[in-house]
Amino acid sequence: MSEQGEMAKQTLSTRRGFLKGSTGAGLLICSSQVAFGYKANERLNIASIGIGGRGDDNLRGVQGETIVALCDVDKKRGARNLAKYPKVKRFEDFRRMLAEMDKQIDAVVVSTPDHTHTVAAVAAMKQGKHVYCEKPLTRTVHEARTMRLTAQKHKVVTQMGNQGSASEGVRRATEWGLAGTAGPIKEAYLWVGDGDKPKTLPKDNPPVPKELNWDLWLGPASERPYHPSYLPFTWRGWRHFGSGQLGDMGCHTGNFLFRCLRLEKLWEAAPNGVKGSRLIKISGEANGLQLEGYPSSSRVHFELPARGDLPPVKLTVSSGAEMRPDKDLLHGEGVGSFGSLLIGSKASIYSSNPWNTSSSLIGKKTEIKGPEKTIPRISSHHQEWIDACKGKGKTFSSFDIGGPLTELIQLANLAGVVGEPFHYDPIAGEIKDHPVASGLLHRPYRKGWSI
């Protein structure tokens, strides 16, 4: 482990001991300007990495295309789709699949646990494959940056799997935000879930199930023995593999908020002659810190600089009931487990739906007429990606949006642990004023794995 990584680990341990005794869319963007020249009626050759759980749903979303390869490390989890596609070539190791079938694959769907998203998606993009990848896009801030830059370099069509992006709720709220319907927005809130549960390393050592390749399931994560506490699904709450409740749902619930505020602009190089700091000041607090899991509650403040004509904004991201915003901000709507709130001078844009599939204008000071609908309405999130791969339209949740949104959410996870203010440079992907926070931007990969 690097010196910074060791320092970060020690800080986690120290803060855990301390806290133990206390109470304490942007517009439509496509990562490829020119698709690879498929005709609209041609089928894509699609490979799926991870075919159980979310992988099962995602395969159904692309089943109208030609499925040419299935890859999963768990034969039991993937059994339904292995039976559904008996003649399709199957693999356990996506690296072998990409090496052997390079010329036969047009696009790849990645539905693995968070810790293997990046190694799989980046390998595919480097071969020129279009990629659909589940949310959160990555487990670390550095990985999210790498995904975005790799997609741009190889000019592939991408889509992050925050499926609420296809809904009227997200698209209409985004139109309100971009049109200034609520007036200038200088304050925003995003809250997610009821907090994470404690995680303790298991002490027993059960055998690895015969249908599971544990070594490949671990992928780039550091070595540890198999235990059923880690999978399936429960990996989300383990810091070693997942991103906690905030990482799991932040890219859903924070979807239109990110777009309305045009936050992706902070990750774009400034035009020649345009000056001004892009540094984001971040400060956080958390209860129930632990080495293995995520906090029982956290609250993180982002001081986001101006984006063109849009004013600076203070964004608060939280998890856990005690960290939610004051109910008075919601004009009688009530504070539920999930919420996205943008407070403007004329009204507030609000959704209590975890996926933003419904949204509304609340606290209107006068009657407001909404703008014309300018964002295309679509049949499905998956179909939008497929169409864009064939040169028809653009994706709404490309890695140009999904990457920075994931960075923001993982920075919130990071800041709750650090518990001290620091500044993040979204252009350089660096934290220069806090070595511990900098050490948490990425996690070392196991030997044999890289991006």
Largest beta-sheet details = 8 strands, mixed
Assign the CATH architecture of the domain at 45-164 and 379-399.
Answer: 3-Layer(aba) Sandwich
- Which sequence of SSEs, written as H and E, runs from N to C? HEHEHEHEHEHEHEHHHEEEEEEHHEH
- The CATH class of the domain at 45-164 and 379-399, by name, is Alpha Beta
The name of the CATH superfamily of the domain at 45-164 and 379-399 reads: NAD(P)-binding Rossmann-like Domain
Name the features.
Rossmann fold, 451 residues, 8-stranded mixed beta sheet, globular, 6-stranded parallel beta sheet, alpha/beta
Q: How is this structure best described in words?
A:
- With 451 residues, the protein is an alpha/beta fold.
- It has a domain at 45-164 and 379-399: NAD(P)-binding Rossmann-like Domain (Rossmann fold), CATH 3.40.50.720.
- Helices cover 29% and strands 17% of the residues.
- It has 13 helices and 14 strands.
- It has helices spanning 3-20, 54-61, 79-84, 94-101, 117-126, 141-154, 168-179, 214-218, 244-253, 255-260, 381-389, 399-418, 435-439, and strands at 45-49, 66-71, 89-91, 107-110, 130-134, 158-161, 185-192, 280-287, 297-304, 313-319, 338-344, 348-351, 360-362, 422-424.
- An 8-stranded mixed beta sheet has the order 13-12-11-7-10-9-8-14. It has a 6-stranded parallel beta sheet with strand order 3-2-1-4-5-6, sandwiched between helices.
